[in-house]
Amino acid sequence: MQLEFPHYPTPAELEQFYIPFPDGDPAARIGLRLSFYFRRLGEADLRKPLAACIQHYLALAGDRIQLYAFANDRKFRKLKPGQHIEVQKFQEMIDPESDFNFEASATEVGIAQHWSISVMSSRIKFSEDELGYFLAYLPFTALENAPPRSFTKLFLQICNALAVEHAYGGLGWVLPFDPSGRRAALELPLLGEQAMRFCALDVDDPNGTLIHCKQGIKSINWLTAVSNRLLERMDGADSVLRMAGHGVESHPYGNGMVFQAGSSPQIGDTVQGVIPQAYLALGKALKPLRAEYPWPIFTAPPGYPFPSHVDPDIAFSQRWLARFDGG
Fold first, then answer.
1. Domain map of the chain by residue range?
2. Which residue, 170, 191, 231, 320, has most beta carbons within 10 Å?
């Protein structure tokens, strides 16, 4: 079903919609989104909990996963009914001399689906400032029968396990799990338009974030983790909380603090003037930590006014990244 919102949608309604590719396949859905950025890529002490986090997600997904690939696979492997992803492959990737990459999804390559995961921890081994990522999607219904605060607990669990540098959790755009499909989805002008309208739905290109957010955060979501190293530039988490005000809560993790913007994740709708105030408060408070991001995330929708001397895709992406800066 194509994304058309005649009114402010509920999360249950959102799960049924998608933005299509030209051939009609889903390019972007909306669901629960978890993205974590961490250091120490080549260290076994990082890779062991990373493998455990992947296996925990796969346990949540159950028998829904259809395709997967480990590092150095030339093509995606397809699971037959009753088959499971071999655990031994994760153990092999813990070796610091091995590449550690993993992708899996509940649908075909190049199609957005709520159950998918993409992990990268091996681009540059042993380089102190390089980042890896753990990106995972879930449908809204995944945790509907779970105990209260299960999503927050899952987010904190992974933040602790990976000692994340920064991380983001909440509602967001679900893109195809393979990098080429994800990039193609981000290039659709309709996605940029809808991302700007429904401002509290997070999205990113993880490869761009790895490159440009080594010394700062990308933006914010309902849950935003920030390392102690970054928070030192703000005189600590207490300073951020004072600036953000009473609408923002906090949860410590081993390497920093998770800031929670309000009691529940929001959608936002700039067309109807619905800007989540807790998101705005947190965005303004963390603005000094937002990294420069000189590459485009989106393709600018037609009709957005920009000076002739600027790249419209970069300018539009900058505007989206600054949507909670408060001017």
1. 11-321
2. 170
Per-residue pLDDT tens over the stretch 299-314: 999 888 887 888 999 9
- Rounded-to-integer distance, Cα 23 and Cα 21, Å: 5
CA nearest 61: which of 23, 6, 107?
A: 107
Q: What is the mean pLDDT of residues 57-74?
A: 92
Helix (H) or strand (E) holding 220: none
Tens-place pLDDT, residues 32-64: 999 999 998 888 899 999 999 999 999 999 999
Question: What is the Cα gyration radius of the chain?
Answer: 19
Determine phi and psi for 185, rounding to 5 degrees. -65, -40
Q: For helices 150-162 and 44-61, what crossing angle results, to 10°?
A: 160
The answer to whether 56 touches 48, Cβ cutoff 8 Å, is no
Which residues, 6+ apart, have CB-to-CB distance to 63 below 8 Å?
none
